Amino acid sequence: MKYYSTQNPDQKVSLSEAVIKGLAPDNGLYMPERIPTLSQDQIESLSSMSFQEIGYLVIGSLFSEDLTDGQIKELVGHTLTFDAPLVQVEDDVYSLELFHGPTLAFKDFGARFCSKLMSLLLTDSDQKVRVLVATSGDTGSAVANGFLGVEGVEVIILFPKGKVSLLQEKQFTTLGQNITALEVDGVFDDCQTLVKKAFLDPELNEKLLLTSANSINIARWIPQCLYYFYAYSRLPKNGKKVVFSVPSGNFGNIGAGILAQRMGLPIDQFVAATNVNKVVPDYLKGEEFLAKPSIQTVSNSMDVGNPSNFPRLLALYGNDGALFREKVKGYFYDDQETVKAIQSVKPNGYTLDPHGAVGYLGLKAFMDGNPGYVGVFLETAHPGKFRDVVEEALGEELVLPERLAAFLEGEKDVIPMGKGFEEFKGFLKNLP
Ligand SMILES: *Cc1c(COP(=O)(O)O)cnc(C)c1O
């Protein structure tokens, strides 16, 4: 299978090149040249398959030309080591809990897959790979922990100073080994811009093998489709249509859901739910796509003013904006509404995190106006990761899972960095 750049569909590369490059040299995002579809029988048989078996089937249909059966098993086996349970919250409303991995956010799926795939593709190379990651919080922790100790790979994480939660920060600034954290005096979009500039800088690329583990990388992005197949197969549908609501920032996660839909999974509708960084909901209402500076919110992992996966979403709908607007509905919520949702769902015996709360609100808004659906919202992080917000909303202390509490013990170690490109470039050029 070849992968094309969204900037130039004639520009095709191999799986290996797409993964190692991350971003296409023309600044486009890589996309599979063909989207394989599962048969009706295969879709029906998902309900009797395990999560891992679903993984072999779906990843096999995408990667079987490029990887051996053994490699596909190894890749999926390494990725799906924890469950993604569906938990009923109300009648016809389910939470898809994606936070049962090592860093308690859905990004563990993509990060684990990505590190494994890179190490499989790099076995014959003796050049050190530098993974550059811009993070608004959870990407940093998932990628750092996914790549920790992986030989031949060095991870450099850029995060906005003072704009990620303490727990998030601890998960990627305390690890040492092959993980370096740069504390950037700016916002998330500044971090993302620095990373993008580094990938496009000829001098740096001459000297270093740079790659990305952001959701722009297909190795991070594609595996996220797996839990949509799994959740669909476990969802009690009772003849109703299915809607998934995805709390979104860079729009990789919802894009992976749309990929699953294009592969034949009968998801009728998507909800793109955001905080006040609402560039995509505005687009879906009929406005132009217009990137804006990011605004800080209580759902900080979605504070993205220029969602980098947008061209991918359009490509998945054949660059047909009308079809995109028909299949995906956008809703956005401010901090006050988010906190209220956490409070209002608590009596059902369920604790939302601020991101899941935005997904829940979007789902409810859609279902209120559209009867006949069963709905799933993606609960993208454990509420304990956003402890301050959730505890203040509920007026009670949360019990942190042990693996989360353990991160708090570590000592923070960062390199301060301005948001200008020259300083960052100088740092990279001087790497040993
Ligand atoms: C990254 C993140 C999101 C946004 O996901 P995208 O794929 O960037 O849209 C939502 N919730 C949490 C908890 C996250 O960490």
UniProtKB/TrEMBL annotation:
PROSITE patterns for the chain: DEHYDRATASE_SER_THR
Reactions catalysed according to its record: O-phospho-L-homoserine + H2O = L-threonine + phosphate
UniProt cross-references to SUPFAM superfamilies, sorted A to Z: Tryptophan synthase beta subunit-like PLP-dependent enzymes (SSF53686)
Modified residues (N6-(pyridoxal phosphate)lysine): 107
Biological pathway: Amino-acid biosynthesis; L-threonine biosynthesis; L-threonine from L-aspartate: step 5/5
Cofactor(s) the record lists: pyridoxal 5'-phosphate
Protein name in the entry: Threonine synthase
High-level lineage: Bacteria, Pseudomonadati, Bacteroidota, Cytophagia, Cytophagales
